[in-house]
Automatic annotation (TrEMBL):
Pfam families: AAA_33. Keywords: ATP-binding, Kinase, Nucleotide-binding, Plasmid, Transferase. InterPro entries: P-loop_NTPase, Therm_gnt_kin. Pathway: Carbohydrate acid metabolism. Coiled coil: none annotated. It catalyses: D-gluconate + ATP = 6-phospho-D-gluconate + ADP + H(+). One of its GO terms (molecular function) is gluconokinase activity. It is an enzyme of class 2 (transferase). Its EC number is 2.7.1.12. This is Gluconokinase.
C-alpha cells in the first residue's frame, strides 16, 4: 500500500495532502473513466477569465496563471522545490505522487515504467485535486508532477486552466546520484533512463509561461529564481515580507 498520510512538515503554505488523505478522495470514477468528464474549472472556481477581463482599469489577471507545475524526471527535486515554493508564495502544495493508485506505485517500485494509459488515469485524478483546491480559495496551487510529455501538460492545462511550468532539468549524473542517496523512496534509480527517454522538455514559447532551472544549482538559488518567475506569471503568488499585495500585470 502506498502511504498516503502526511510525511512532510506543514509550512505556512496549505499542504494539500493534509486535507486529502486517500486516493479515493480524488479518483472516485477511475473504473468507468468518467474522470475524463470536463471539470469546468471556470465555473467551479473564482478564476473566471470572462469576468476578470471585464474589470478594465483594474489589475488585469489575463495571462496570469492560477496553477504551477514543477516538472521533470524522477529525483530532480520536484517535491522539494514545489513545497518550498508553495510556502514562499502562500499557495497550496499538491504532491502528484499521492495520486498514483497502488498498482502504479507497485509497477515503478518493481522497475517497470508507467504506460501512457496508466499516466492518463493518474493525471485525471490530479486534475480533480487541482480543481478542488482552486474551488476552495484563490491561492495558487504548486503541483509536483513529472508531467514528462507535452500531451500530459496539455491535459493539465485543458482541465484546470492556465498553467505555469517550472522544469527542473540538468546533468543526469547529478540526478542519478541524488536518487541513490535518497532514502526510503519507492522509485528505483534504474527508472531514470526511461524517464529521460519519455521526457519532452517544454517548448518555452508554445507552452509559455515556462522556464527551465538547472538542478546543479543550490536549492536556495532554485527557489529564489522560481519565486521570481511565479511573481511574474502567477496570480496571487505570495506577498512581500511587508505584507504588500503581490505585483500583477497592469493594463497599459
Ligand atoms: N538543488 C538541489 N541540491 C541538492 N539536493 C537536492 C536539490 N534538489 C533536490 N535535492 C535532493 O534530491 C533528492 C530528490 O529530490 P525530490 O525527492 O524532491 O525529487 P522529485 O523530483 O520530487 O523526485 P520523485 O519524482 O522521484 O518523487 C532529495 O533527497 C532532495 O533533498
Ligand atoms: O510519470 C511517471 O513516470 C511518474 O510520475 C514518476 O515520475 C514518479 O511518480 C515519480 O518520479 C516518483 O518518484
Amino acid at each position: 500500500m502506498i502511504a498516503l498520510t502526511p510525511t512532510r512538515a506543514a509550512t505556512s503554505a496549505s499542504v494539500a495532502f493534509l486535507k486529502f488523505r486517500t486516493i479515493s478522495d480524488f479518483q472516485p470514477h477511475l473504473d468507468d473513466e468518467s474522470y475524463l468528464t470536463p471539470l469546468t474549472y471556470a465555473s467551479a472556481t473564482p478564476y473566471d477569465s470572462a469576468n476578470i477581463e471585464n474589470h478594465a482599469g483594474e489589475e488585469r489577471m489575463v495571462g496570469l496563471c492560477r496553477n504551477v507545475v514543477v516538472m521533470g524526471v524522477c529525483g530532480v527535486g520536484k517535491s522539494t522545490v514545489a513545497s518550498r515554493l508553495a510556502a514562499r508564495c502562500e499557495g497550496h502544495f499538491l504532491e502528484g505522487d499521492q495520486f498514483h493508485p497502488p498498482e502504479n506505485v507497485g509497477a515503478m517500485a518493481g522497475g517497470i515504467p508507467l504506460t501512457d494509459k496508466e499516466r492518463w488515469a493518474w493525471l485525471g485524478a490530479i486534475c480533480h485535486g487541482i480543481a478542488a483546491l482552486n474551488a476552495r480559495d484563490a491561492a495558487p496551487v504548486f503541483l509536483a508532477c513529472s508531467a514528462l510529455k507535452r500531451s500530459y501538460r496539455t491535459l493539465l492545462r485543458d482541465r484546470t486552466g492556465p498553467l505555469a511550468i517550472i522544469h527542473l532539468d540538468g546533468d543526469s549524473a547529478i540526478i542519478r546520484q541524488r536518487l541513490h542517496a535518497r532514502p526510503n523512496h519507492f522509485m528505483p534509480p534504474s527508472l531514470l533512463d526511461s524517464q529521460l527517454r519519455d521526457l519532452e522538455p517544454p517548448d518555452t514559447h508554445a507552452e509559455a509561461p515556462a522556464c527551465r532551472l538547472d538542478v546543479a544549482r543550490s536549492l536556495d538559488e532554485i527557489i529564489d529564481e522560481a519565486e521570481r518567475f511565479c511573481r511574474r506569471h502567477v496570480a496571487s503568488a505570495g506577498r512581500s515580507p511587508s505584507g504588500e499585495k503581490p505585483s500583477r500585470q497592469q493594463i497599459p
